[in-house]
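#lab-general

N.A. 3:47 PM
ok so I finally got the sequence cleaned up, no stray characters, all 177 residues accounted for. can someone with queue access submit it? mine expired

B.Y. 3:52 PM
send it over

N.A. 3:53 PM
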Amino acid sequence: MWRLAVSIVVLSFAGIASPATHVAPPPKRPPVDCHDADHRAIGFWVGAWSVIDTGSSTPIADSRIEWMYDGCAIRETYTQTVGPGGKPVDYRGSSYTALNNGDHTWRQFYIDSTGGAFSYTGDLNDATLTLTTRTASVTNRMTIKAQADGSVRQSGEISTDGGKTWSPGYDFTYRRK
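B.Y. 4:20 PM
back already:
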């Protein structure tokens, strides 16, 4: 009898004797149509671009932004060859930007050729996408805004006091190729 009891306990722990150990798979998520107005709201940024320092006419970079995953995200591939003062640089970056259906915020994950990896979160208001990311001591805010002439302006700001004050970082204008 003792051996039978031990065998039943061992089999129970192995999940063989107890049907209660079976876990049902999670319910399927309802399908999302990423062609709705919310997901398409950043479509102004999709295209092939020459990137210039705002206020200049000299291209410093190229950017290609395309729809991904049946319109549920966009991917940017950025290549900069001209740096500050007109000096040559070899800088590359790539990002994925999407509307998070769970909390209805915009998310972007950006990686670059310097080893940087940043996760941004933000909102879209009046054709302006504003995204922020925080590290231990710095908050970065990026604004991407459609312009009346069909260009897109992207600017960055930095705060070292938790967002109380902001210093300009960069200011680029994307012009269609």
